[in-house]
Specification:
Length: 381
Amino acid sequence: MPRIALFGSTGSIGTNCLDVVRHHRERFDVVALSAHSRSTELAEQCREFGPKWAVLCDENQRADLARDAFDPTELRFGADVLEEIAASPEVDTVVSAIVGAAGLRSTWAAIEAGKRVALANKETMVVAGPLVTELARTSGAEIIPVDSEHSAIFQAMQSGAPTEVRRVVLTASGGPFRGRSRAELEAVTPEQALDHPTWDMGPKITIDSATMTNKALELIEAKWLFDLRDDQIEIIVHPQSIVHSFVEFVDGSVLAQLSPPDMRLPIQYALTFPDRCEATARQMDWRTAFSLEFEPPDEEAFPALAIGREVAAQGGTSGAVFNAANEAAVERFLAGELKFTDISRACRAVLDAHDFDPDPALADLLRVDQWSRTEVMKWTS
Ligand code: NAD
Ligand code: MG
């Protein structure tokens, strides 16, 4: 029975993960849960799943909390505790479901300690992909993707050797603004951008889907996770979000993974791999007619895609700069300070201004992350 630490348990991935556990109580043991600041929800989760530890990363909560609401779970505070728990001999699998670069350190600690990491936090791979995969190689950690596209690729890749892969094709829903021109995107509001047609996700990744930055981040994630060349990754728009990606092999055979858009499947697979168990997620209905559409993305309306390709090709500090710039720009867009189309503009401006280092260490990446956020906070269109 894998002993699971779930970081980011109150989020969209976190609650879906707990639903998987709820359906398979006999298979998984939850030993740690963490949230940023939603203490009431975290306490409720503790009552249901009875972990040994609960962590609130926001230290400000410390003063005014009724700790007995968590009994018998031990309530702890601060992000540093996550690193300690990630490396604990009482943990086998870490589910990395914190949003943004805030998830990097705890994910790093889990990989350093040689754990299985069910990786939802794609930002870790965008910021530090080459360092992370090298760390996993030396520690023996297993990184199993939770991102649905990467889970699909990972599943399809089980049928061939890495050297037999010709290319991977990432599918993209196209988000709420598929079909709109660049000019039409200028005036869209946070409310419109938060209304995703196929997936129900946290606010940051929902905005990333609307700008298609999510696909740019996923392209970078795929490159480092599967050790691909830049010319081996294609992007195709597929509005139904049923085919989660394709892998094309050297003999011309193309394998896809299909399922309704429901994150409980890739989460469950990352926990049970190489086994499978009864579905928690919704399943395909083969008795009702349906069709699947595919179309090339509109690179002009969504400049984030070109930025993603450039950043993937450059490597070095570019991923950390791009990711942090995007996080800060999304925050400013949601606060009403930037236009929707400014998000990519700000990312481009900060990438162009940055002092590129081709071979950074982790500390350098954390430093440029901070620099990039500060630049975006000052940026005006
Ligand atoms: P969310 O906003 O719903 O949840 C984020 C979680 O992280 C919450 O539990 C929150 O308390 C915690 N958190 C936020 N900031 C934190 C901080 N500074 N320190 C510690 N904890 C913090 O986000 P989500 O949609 O669940 O996404 C989580 C991650 O999974 C992201 O990296 C996202 O890109 C990735 N992902 C999500 C989906 C999805 O369907 N939601 C799909 C693929 C990948
Ligand atoms: Mg995805």
